[in-house]
């Protein structure tokens, strides 16, 4: 059972049970393991935002140009996966109410993964095969280490809630994704796949975007939406159906692409669409049951993201069946933007707005409770900047998608610039919350403000 208060800070280890959320198994309050992943992941989001208006139009002409491939991996590895690795190291022990296991080399995890990602992206950008192979190997080794840590933690836990089932499945897909990616890099040198390259790429994309990233976010949402929106009276019955339908769809679609068998692709796509629409309905149920009626910016990101997911999944399956993925680059770019920015990106931005300030508050201000006035969680972020970032992303994204579909570089660049500005503002806002502040500059909140009450997640 996890208990967390609404807005009012409480001492760690007290009635609010805040301690599990505030640290890892190694040391309560120690944020040095998950935080670097999330902060560097935000830098990856900002880098993606800077490169998008520069490289995005190039994808209309040469979709597999090295700079385009580098941009895709900035999004997938440097932004989305980077944040999810850190968030999972923080959230899995919270969900299980159990310490992390197999942590002997945990301190090497972040530097090894970051080095691998930098080398891999550099290899794509400058098209250097040794960098691709070395970087890819480091990423694979880091992922194996990550899966070993969380796998051991999940295996030894006494309970496995719904979110953990999603996470366990996603970890298996992550192993497959990085293995296929390394295989693709080796194929550049030895050309052993012959005509199977396109099938490998579609399988790689399916397992990465749906198997790893989407499965993780859907599972995490079942914990975080309830927690941050103060949802009561919602059970896991529909979520369990979503889980099994999603796994059937992922396996069916990936095998269909690998074998080049359209009936299996269609069946897998139908199962995925059903899973996504059931998930959308379940999120809508949680929204209706929430106790916290004002919708915060972080929740707006999450809710809009689910809307993009409900649209992009069936459209992507139809495009794959019609063969538009390769023949029409604009369609591929539009779907990629809707998936990477609309669904995955907005979800990570919204959840980062909640997780990072909580880590910072718990480490920096919880020990000061009862001794001096401390800021509230919501005071750590600049609310006007949050709103500005939200509108920049959500106004720029439709413009960029239209530019891609119309094959108009100027429109795509304009929308990409708006998205990039929104991501830069979001990253700067969170980083500002992390940087130390002088005592007289710190925002102070009254400890006597109204407490919205605890929310209990079972």
Outline the secondary-structure elements.
Blueprint (H helix, E strand, L loop, with lengths): L1 E3 L14 H4 L11 H28 L4 H31 L12 H18 L2 H27 L6 H29 L6 H33 L7 H23 L2 H28 L7 H26 L1 H4 L1 H36 L18 H23 L3 H26 L20 E3 L1
Antiparallel strand pairs: 1-2
Helix pairs in contact: 2-3, 2-12, 2-14, 3-4, 3-5, 3-7, 3-12, 4-5, 5-6, 6-7, 6-8, 7-8, 7-9, 7-12, 8-9, 9-10, 10-12, 10-13, 12-13, 12-14, 13-14
Key traits:
disordered N terminus, 2 strands, globular, Cytochrome C Oxidase, Chain A, 458 residues, two-stranded antiparallel sheet, mainly alpha, disordered C terminus, 14 helices
Low-confidence stretches: 1-29, 439-458
* SSE string: EHHHHHHHHHHHHHHE
Count of folded domains: 1
The CATH C-level class name: Mainly Alpha
Q: In angstroms, what separates the terminal alpha carbons?
A: 5 Å
How would you describe this structure to a colleague?
With 458 residues, this protein is mainly alpha-helical. It has a single domain (35-364, 376-434), classed as Cytochrome C Oxidase, Chain A (Up-down Bundle), CATH 1.20.210. The chain is built from 14 helices and 2 strands, in the order βααααααααααααααβ. It has a two-stranded antiparallel ribbon with strand order 1-2. The longest helix has 36 residues, at 329-364. The radius of gyration is 21 Å and the shape is globular. The protein starts with a strand and ends with a strand. Residues 1-29 and 439-458 have low confidence and may be disordered.
């Amino acid at each position: 059972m996890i208990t967390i208060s609404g807005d009012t800070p409480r001492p760690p280890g007290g009635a609010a049970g805040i301690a599990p959320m505030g640290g890892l198994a190694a040391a309560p309050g120690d944020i040095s393991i998950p935080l670097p992943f999330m902060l560097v992941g935000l830098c990856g989001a900002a880098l993606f935002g800077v490169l998008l208006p520069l490289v995005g139009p190039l994808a209309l002409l040469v979709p597999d140009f090295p700079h385009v491939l580098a941009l895709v991996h900035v999004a997938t590895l440097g932004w989305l996966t980077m944040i999810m690795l850190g968030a999972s190291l923080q959230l899995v022990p919270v969900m299980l109410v159990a310490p992390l296991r197999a942590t002997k080399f945990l301190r090497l995890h972040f530097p090894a993964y970051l080095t691998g990602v930098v080398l891999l992206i550099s290899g794509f950008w400058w098209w250097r095969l040794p960098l691709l192979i070395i970087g890819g190997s480091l990423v694979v080794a880091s992922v194996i280490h990550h899966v070993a840590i969380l796998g051991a933690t999940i295996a030894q836990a006494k309970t496995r809630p719904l979110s953990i089932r999603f996470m366990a499945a996603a970890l298996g897909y992550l192993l497959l994704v990085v293995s296929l990616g390394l295989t693709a890099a080796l194929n550049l040198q030895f050309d052993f796949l012959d005509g199977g390259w396109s099938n490998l790429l579609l399988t790689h994309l399916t397992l990465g975007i749906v198997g790893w990233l989407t499965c993780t976010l859907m599972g995490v949402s079942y914990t975080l939406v309830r927690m941050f929106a103060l949802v009561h009276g919602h059970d896991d019955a529909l979520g369990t159906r979503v889980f099994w339908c999603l796994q059937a769809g992922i396996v069916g679609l990936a095998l269909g692409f690998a074998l080049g068998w359209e009936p299996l692709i269609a069946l897998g796509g139908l199962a995925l669409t059903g899973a996504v629409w059931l998930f959308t309905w379940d999120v809508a149920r949680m929204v209706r049951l929430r106790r916290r009626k004002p919708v915060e910016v972080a929740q707006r990101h999450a809710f809009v993201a689910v809307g993009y997911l409900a649209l992009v999944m069936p459209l992507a399956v139809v495009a794959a069946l019609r063969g538009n993925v390769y023949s029409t680059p604009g369609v591929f770019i539009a779907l990629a933007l809707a998936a990477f920015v609309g669904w995955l990106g907005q979800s990570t931005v919204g959840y980062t707005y909640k997780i990072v300030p909580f880590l910072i508050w718990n480490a920096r201000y919880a020990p000061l409770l009862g001794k001096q006035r401390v800021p509230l969680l919501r005071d750590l972020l600049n609310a006007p900047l949050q709103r500005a970032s939200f509108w920049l992303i959500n106004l720029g994204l439709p413009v960029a998608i239209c530019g891609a579909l119309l094959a108009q570089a100027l429109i795509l660049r304009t929308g990409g610039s708006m998205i990039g500005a929104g991501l830069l503002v979001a990253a700067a806002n969170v980083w500002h919350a992390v940087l130390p502040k002088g005592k007289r500059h710190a925002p102070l909140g009254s400890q006597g403000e109204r407490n919205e009450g605890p929310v209990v997640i079972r």
